[in-house]
């Protein structure tokens, strides 16, 4: 056998060897049936559609095209499965920390620098820190409620009194950031940084393009400014604590808490600042958005306004002059809360959140591989006529019928172990605002058909201007 024949045989043998490997790999991959859908364009995937089209349309279009249960996509650099419908919600909420854990977008990790730490999100997240001492338990919130009522009254007095017209959205942002600042860090001075918090919120789900004019660039600059302000607050807080001043707020707890995941060491000031900034962002935009659209929807319906007013007047009649709202009063605001629930159904304060898959799992006959991301969203159920009759109609009474919506169809705060810990805080803040406003004012929308801009963060284009009428 000459050298030519030997080389030919070796080449054929090598080719057969490669073919066998490729066939084996392909066969093993074919045993995993991935969800239907498309990864979109190279590199960017379907990120542009996700960020710049209505989230509800993004989800419903793909549910209709691929599957009502699950579809795959690629957004923000990640292969992602979107699990839909009430069964999907139940599956997600029931398998937290078993099949998947929290995932922060890459832009979020870059904006909140300490989130890039060596500790995984479920071990070092700020929600873990604040759940332990029970800051959001009813008894803790009840102690804060009177102050929440007082701050709301003072801000309405300074911003609304003596005016015939106001812009709702800018006021809602000032109010919610003031309340969040007082609750989380024991200071209202952070409220002057409203525009920075807007920029941060918009940058949380942005493409990482750190060049002037982009959402990520603005968010990064805003985070630096907020971090500097928070560092000053932390230093002041430490000085006061060193003098023996007793304080009870989340910032004080973070200063003192020792992190078991970090050899029992105290958190550094930069990490505390990032975690507090994350809490402030979460407690700011969601509540401000709900307050704004509450005013919008009620402004369209005088019949709903009159029912809210009647309920709030009955509560006020049972209180002494100057007495602040109490926990029992909040529990009497049943119709008012139904109106807020309907507001959050039509305009959810949170569009969705991401999870990271911890291990391969199967759902609806499809396999989602380890390392993929799962996107949870309210968009797959909130306007589905199978779950909500006349879904486009604003109807607070739907929460009184047959014990309310079908389980897992109405989930504005998520569910399971990772349900938003600030749900009760948000309820109190919005009800307190509503009580104080309807007791003094009726309003009309100056732009009834005002355009809503922004997709991940819906915003009235002109700030929702209203004309006030005093009682």
Automatic annotation (TrEMBL):
InterPro entries: Cyt_P450, Cyt_P450_CS, Cyt_P450_E_grp-I, Cyt_P450_sf
Record Gene3D superfamilies: Cytochrome P450 (1.10.630.10)
Cell compartments where the protein resides: Membrane
Membrane topology reported for the UniProt record: Single-pass membrane protein
Keywords: Heme, Iron, Membrane, Metal-binding, Monooxygenase, Oxidoreductase, Transmembrane, Transmembrane helix
Membrane-spanning ranges: 6-23
Pfam families the record matches: p450
UniProt keyword Transmembrane helix present: yes
Family: Belongs to the cytochrome P450 family.
Protein name (Swiss-Prot/TrEMBL): Cytochrome P450
Biological source species: Datura stramonium
Taxonomic placement: Eukaryota, Viridiplantae, Streptophyta, Embryophyta, Tracheophyta
């Amino acid at each position: 056998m000459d050298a030519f024949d030997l080389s030919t045989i070796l080449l054929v043998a090598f080719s057969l060897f490669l073919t066998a490997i490729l066939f084996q790999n392909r066969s093993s991959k074919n045993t995993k049936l991935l969800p239907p859908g498309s990864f979109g364009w190279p590199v960017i995937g379907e990120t542009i559609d996700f960020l710049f089209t209505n989230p509800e349309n993004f989800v419903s279009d793909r549910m209709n095209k691929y599957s009502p249960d699950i579809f795959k996509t690629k957004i923000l650099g990640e292969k992602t499965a979107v699990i839909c419908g009430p069964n999907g919600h139940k599956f997600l909420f029931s398998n937290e920390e078993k099949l998947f854990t929290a995932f922060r977008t890459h832009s979020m990790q870059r904006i909140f620098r300490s989130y890039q730490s060596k500790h995984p999100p479920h071990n070092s997240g700020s929600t873990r820190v604040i759940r332990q001492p029970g800051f959001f338990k009813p008894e803790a919130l009840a102690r804060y409620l009177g102050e929440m009522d007082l701050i709301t009254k003072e801000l309405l007095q300074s911003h609304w009194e003596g005016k015939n017209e106001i812009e709702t959205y800018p006021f809602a942002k000032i109010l919610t950031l003031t309340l969040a600042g007082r609750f989380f860090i024991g200071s209202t001075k952070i409220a002057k940084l409203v525009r920075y918090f807007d920029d941060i919120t918009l940058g949380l789900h942005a493409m990482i393009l750190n060049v002037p004019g982009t959402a990520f660039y603005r968010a990064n600059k805003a985070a630096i400014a907020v971090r500097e302000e928070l560092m000053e607050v932390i230093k002041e807080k430490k000085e006061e604590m060193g003098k023996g001043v007793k304080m009870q707020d989340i910032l004080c707890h973070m200063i003192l808490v020792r992190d078991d995941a970090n050899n029992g060491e105290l958190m550094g000031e930069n990490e505390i600042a990032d975690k507090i900034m994350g809490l402030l962002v979460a407690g700011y935009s969601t509540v401000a958005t709900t307050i704004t659209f509450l005013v919008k929807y009620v402004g369209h319906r005088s019949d709903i306004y009159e029912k809210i007013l009647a309920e709030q007047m009955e509560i006020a009649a049972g209180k002494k002059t100057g007495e602040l709202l109490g926990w029992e009063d909040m529990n009497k605001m049943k119709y008012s809360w139904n109106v807020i629930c309907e507001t959050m159904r039509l305009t959810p304060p949170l569009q969705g959140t991401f999870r990271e898959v911890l291990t391969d799992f199967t759902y609806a006959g499809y396999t989602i591989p380890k390392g993929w991301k799962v996107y949870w969203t309210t968009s797959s159920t909130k306007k589905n006529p199978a779950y909500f009759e006349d879904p486009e109609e604003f109807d607070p009474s739907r929460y009184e019928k047959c014990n309310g919506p079908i389980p897992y169809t109405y989930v504005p705060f998520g569910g399971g172990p990772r349900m938003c810990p600030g749900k009760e805080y948000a309820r109190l803040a919005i009800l307190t605002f509503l009580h104080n406003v309807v007791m003094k004012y009726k309003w009309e929308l100056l732009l009834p058909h005002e355009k809503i801009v922004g997709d991940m963060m819906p915003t009235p284009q002109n700030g929702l201007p209203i004309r006030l009428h005093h009682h």
